[in-house]
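Single Protein Entry

Contents — chain, fold
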Amino acid sequence: LGLISPEGEIRMGVYRADYFDDAGDRVIWSSWIVPDAAEPDFHIPSSLGILKLENFVPLSQLK
């Protein structure tokens, strides 16, 4: 699918939801980076960061 660059980098998001009552009505979302949005929106590019895979070998080199 071409999700990982030749340098071993992949764009991804890491998010957490904190629930503050039994009904789940009060939720605070956190992200590992600060996205460029006033309200939480996990479908925008600024909510993604770059994960670098160490010792990455592209599939084309595994012959």
